[in-house]
Design goal:
It is built from ten helices and no strands. By secondary structure, the protein is an all-alpha fold. The two termini are about 30 Å apart.
């Protein structure tokens, strides 16, 4: 299970109570407020809202990418640092989903902003018009790989990698957005569907590897 240390606050500039920490928290607070209002602010706009100079804000966040990354880290930091000791891969994946989806609900505007910035930068990068540091995502690769790690000996590298890739499709704000915006699903339904699909993916991977979803032999005996 997860220890208190594994769910402790993110260690950043805000880890102390000095002037730098207070400024860090102020800028993050104003960024979060603007995101909750449906805006994807620039660093300069956050500086204006916080009542500080642009130079001050840019010392903490030199780009929108750094700003959004800090916002997401503040939102999902505990999830990113999960270090489960559960020996069963399926249960570790279930634990991860149970820890993560409530945070999607709590920080939905911030995570939507990160998705939007990623899509914007991706389009600009392909068009050769990107004029700022690109916002990169990819933490879910490490997170899911850790959660599913006990399954690797049973699946082998190729099937394990495919399972992690498949899980990454449903583990993220993207699945949340689809189910919320297109289907009008509730938070409980979204989490239930995601966990149901995750279980199905694990079942399929294990069955293909020679067992079935419950660890029994193919003939159902044993």
């Amino acid at each position: 299970m997860l220890s208190k240390a594994e769910t402790a606050p993110v260690a950043t500039t805000a880890a102390s109570n000095g002037p730098k920490a207070r400024m860090w928290r102020l800028l993050l607070k104003e960024a979060g407020a603007m995101l909750c209002e449906g805006e994807t602010p620039s660093v300069a706009e956050i500086a204006a809202r916080a009542g500080v100079s642009r130079a001050t804000a840019y010392r903490y966040f030199p780009s929108r990418s750094k700003l959004i990354n800090a916002v997401v880290e503040d939102s999902l930091g505990p999830v990113r640092r999960l270090a489960s000791t559960i020996p069963d891969g399926r249960e570790r994946i279930r634990e991860l989903f149970a820890q993560t989806f409530p945070r999607f609900k709590e920080y939905e505007p911030q995570l939507r902003a990160a998705l939007l910035l990623s899509l914007e930068h991706g389009a600009q990068e392909r068009a050769g018009t990107l004029a700022e540091e690109p916002y990169r995502r990819g933490h879910r690769i490490k997170i899911l790989s850790h959660a599913a790690a006990p399954l690797k000996p049973k699946l082998g590298k190729k099937r394990f990698d495919r399972l992690v890739r498949a899980l990454s499709v449903i583990y993220g704000i993207e699945a949340y957005v689809v189910l919320r915006d297109i289907w009008g699903s509730s938070d409980r339904e979204i989490e239930g569907i995601a966990r149901w699909v995750a279980d199905a993916l694990v079942d399929t991977a294990l069955r293909e590897a020679g067992g079935n979803g419950h660890g029994r032999k193919r003939n159902g005996r044993g």
